[in-house]
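The protein record filed below.
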Amino acid sequence: MIVYYVVRIFIVTCIDQKVGEVEQVLGCFWEVRANWQNYVIQRSMTNALGAFVKDQSSGALPDCLTRPGNGRTSLALCHSRPICRETRFGNRTGIKFTTFHTHLHHTTCPSTSNAMAYQNNYPEETLAALLKSDDVLKTKGVAEQWNKLADQATIDKTVAALKAKNHLVTVVENREQAFSAVKAAIPAGASVSNGHSTTLEEIGFITYLKEATEYNNFTAKMLKEEDPAKAGEIKRQGYSADYFLSSVTAVTEDGKFAVADLSGTRVSGFLPAKNVIIVAGTNKIVKDSDAAWKRTVEFALDVESARVRLHYKVPASQINNYLLVESGFAWAPPRYHIILIKEQLSY
């Protein structure tokens, strides 16, 4: 079996004026190393590829065509992103990508926009959606004082305190950068699992994690297991993964953070996992541990109750488990990596 195909593509054209139609590409060279397990080459490559590149499904400009700053158009097959379902080069040959893990040379995905981000497949779980759909929240409202974005001075103070307590900290501007930061923090081949996190859903990482193949992925294994007992065992094993992903209900200005749940499926991974990656909007920053408890009870619990009413048809959630992490262990490498996002995310 041929394991790898190396495709060298030379396309010489100029850019059509009508964006969204046919684009031609000038003077670009790409080397795409494609794993046979990930791709199906529909036809053998010919010596020269046709000049026109067009998305066969819609006639629109494919997502994989991006314009770098030098004015040329380049073919960017962004790592692990399902783009260019089928791209044909003229009438001579075609490549159909069935999965989308690509090694690229001589081109990179855009650092901004949504090139690395997956969509949130759970929009009904966001605070904005629940405020519209849940009868209790529509009547009662939420304690908005616990949902305000922190200013830069508060963020700086919080970051300094977290670092002083032997935690890794990354601050990003938006959810797209957060997606990239989480992905960059997990090496290929590491074991990964997660506890429920609306923030992870909102940045698109849960959608990605369900299909990601570069990890020993407990989340994907559990979801594919049809036997409930076996699925439960996989989830239990995932709590001691190399990387456990989740969020918290509050981060304090003096470097502490709090996590709560009903069943233990979120709190459980915070202690046995080798590394814990926490994603949180800066709307979760509060003054101290007393404020962390109040935010959890007065704000997060109310909105989480709306979520469980939607999904599980139960009256409300409750706090059975509450973990306050005061500090990291001073004589060991940092275990907790907190990624703070300057957006109002989750609850």
Summary: The mean pLDDT is 75. The chain has nine helices and 19 strands.
